[in-house]
């Protein structure tokens, strides 16, 4: 049987009513896209690998939208009430999704099932909107199906554009992820409820109007309370993730930076970037000595450190008196600021950034290497102290193109030292980095240093490193090295031998167009 919409009894002229419906479509579409982007952004932060998380969210959501459209066919006979209920549910699920996802990560240690569940639920509800809105707009003024679809989708796509731009440029920087989602949910609830309770109130019984008004009022109250509690919630979640010794938590333009322990707490300092342990004060010497000192066996007057905004690699470089200049390229100003001001981090890096030999460039390492600076002298040593190549953002700093740019900056006889992954459960990462370095004409010496007890849970069984140069260089420590706490010549030989015992052959290099670190 063909369903024919009954003309609506409106409190305003049909033209104005149609405009109100299309405006509601615009607002709801903007809210829907914000929910999608919120899930992608938070999942990328909590789980990592933004490409995978975006693919999961978008594919599940698009599938669910189709299912929602089919399910909404049953609601067309009561389209106004059905739309009000769908928007209330969407406001509740979408608005609370970020907080619920963060809670699953913090207290349950697993966010992926929640991510799929919220993507599915939000997709079903967004998919149900279009058939119901099509019915409502046809009840105001009958028009051919093609014209109605064109008007509806035009408002929908423009709303999606506004929501997509508002998320990174307004909601995220001004309100943050949690409050931004809650505010979006409130806007969604008001838009959906107002449309039905005002424009289509004639379709509702008195009891239905009061129930709908009470439900939306309760929902707005819940969202407001949750918004007021985001501060204590985030603090409790951070304690659940990082322990009770959190001293500093900063959301920079690049990442979340958390410092725990250190100072007067009596516990070793721990630096977390986007939820991942980056520095452990108990074992950091093992990592930074292995990264820096093998590269210092040779000319070393000019040194370039890519990353390393915590100052710990710089500390090791500055222990050689004949180093004339150190250039540090670090993207995140928040990390640099903490390295210069936080007492716990200052105690570890020995206030390295106050040394007059150090110059800091606040820039993305890839873009900094691409920029041409006429007259700039090449570097004797380049140290890449960068995050693991696990996510999309970090993977470009471990590509053939990146190492080609680095090779151009090396002086004759210069050496490149780089961190090549820290998870022993993924040994292929080290050999992918090694193959990528060799693909630009450098000769490599890979080695793996075992992690200490404090880092073993976070980093697997050790850190991978690669020493590279245009001509073969021995993997050794400088004869004039300063006293080292963790690294010995014998330990370095074992690190080289240990890496060779686990060598994986036939590995292809990683490029910008074909990143291979997720394999």
UniProtKB/TrEMBL annotation:
Domain of life: Bacteria
Primary location group: membrane
EC assignment: 2.5.1.16
Pathway note: Amine and polyamine biosynthesis; spermidine biosynthesis; spermidine from putrescine: step 1/1
Membrane-spanning parts: 12-35, 55-72, 79-108, 114-137, 149-172, 178-198, 210-230
GO MF assignments: spermidine synthase activity
Catalysed reactions listed for this entry: S-adenosyl 3-(methylsulfanyl)propylamine + putrescine = S-methyl-5'-thioadenosine + spermidine + H(+)
Positions contributing to spermidine binding: 288, 310
Pfam families: Spermine_synth
Family: Belongs to the spermidine/spermine synthase family.
The protein's name in its UniProt record: Polyamine aminopropyltransferase
Gene that this sequence comes from: speE
């Amino acid at each position: 049987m063909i369903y024919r919409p009954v003309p609506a009894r409106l409190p305003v002229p049909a033209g104005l009513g149609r405009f109100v419906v299309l405006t509601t479509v615009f607002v709801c579409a903007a809210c829907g896209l914000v929910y999608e982007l919120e899930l992608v952004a938070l999942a990328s932060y909590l789980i990592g690998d933004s490409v995978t998380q975006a693919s999961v969210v978008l594919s599940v959501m698009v599938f669910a939208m189709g299912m929602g459209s089919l399910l909404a066919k049953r609601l067309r006979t009561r389209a106004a009430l059905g739309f009000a209920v769908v928007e209330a549910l969407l406001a509740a699920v979408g608005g609370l999704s970020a907080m619920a996802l963060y809670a699953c990560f913090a207290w349950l240690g697993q966010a992926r099932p929640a991510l799929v569940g919220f993507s599915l639920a939000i997709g079903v509800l967004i998919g149900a909107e279009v058939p119901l809105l099509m019915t409502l707009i046809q009840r105001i003024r009958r028009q051919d199906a093609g014209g109605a679809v064109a008007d509806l989708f035009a408002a929908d796509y423009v709303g999606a554009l506004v929501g997509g731009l508002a998320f990174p440029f307004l909601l995220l920087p001004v309100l943050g992820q949690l409050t931004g989602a809650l505010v979006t949910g409130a806007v969604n609830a008001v838009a959906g409820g107002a449309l039905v309770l005002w424009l289509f109130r004639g379709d509702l019984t008195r009891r239905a109007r009061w129930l709908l008004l009470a439900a939306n009022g309760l929902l707005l109250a819940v969202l407001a309370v949750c918004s007021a509690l985001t501060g204590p919630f985030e603090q409790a979640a951070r304690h659940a993730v990082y322990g009770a010794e959190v001293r500093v938590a900063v959301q920079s333009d690049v990442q979340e930076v958390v410092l725990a322990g250190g100072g007067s707490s009596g516990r070793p300092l721990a630096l977390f970037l986007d939820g991942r342990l980056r520095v452990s004060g108990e074992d950091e010497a093992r990592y930074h000595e292995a990264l820096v000192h093998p590269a210092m066996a040779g000319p070393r007057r000019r040194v370039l450190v890519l990353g390393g905004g915590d100052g710990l690699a710089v500390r090791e470089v500055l222990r050689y008196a004949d180093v004339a200049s150190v250039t540090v390229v670090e993207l995140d100003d928040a990390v640099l600021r903490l390295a210069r001001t936080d007492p716990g981090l200052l105690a570890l890096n020995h206030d390295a950034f106050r040394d007059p030999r150090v110059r800091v460039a606040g820039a993305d390492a890839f873009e900094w290497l691409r920029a041409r600076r006429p007259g700039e002298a090449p570097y004797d040593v380049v140290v890449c102290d960068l995050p693991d190549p696990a996510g999309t953002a970090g993977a470009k700093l471990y590509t053939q193109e990146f190492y080609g740019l680095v090779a151009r900056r090396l002086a004759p006889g210069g050496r490149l030292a780089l961190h090549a992954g820290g998870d022993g459960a993924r040994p292929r990462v080290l050999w992918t980095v090694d193959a990528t370095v060799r693909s630009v004409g450098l000769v490599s010496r890979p080695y793996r240093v075992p992690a200490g007890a404090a880092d073993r849970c976070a980093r697997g069984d050790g850190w991978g490193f690669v020493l590279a140069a245009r001509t073969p260089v021995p993997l050794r420590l400088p004869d004039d090295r300063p006293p080292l706490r963790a690294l010995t010549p014998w330990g370095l030989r074992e690190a080289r031998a240990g890496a060779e015992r686990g060598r994986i052959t036939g590995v292809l290099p990683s490029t910008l167009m074909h990143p291979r670190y997720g394999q």
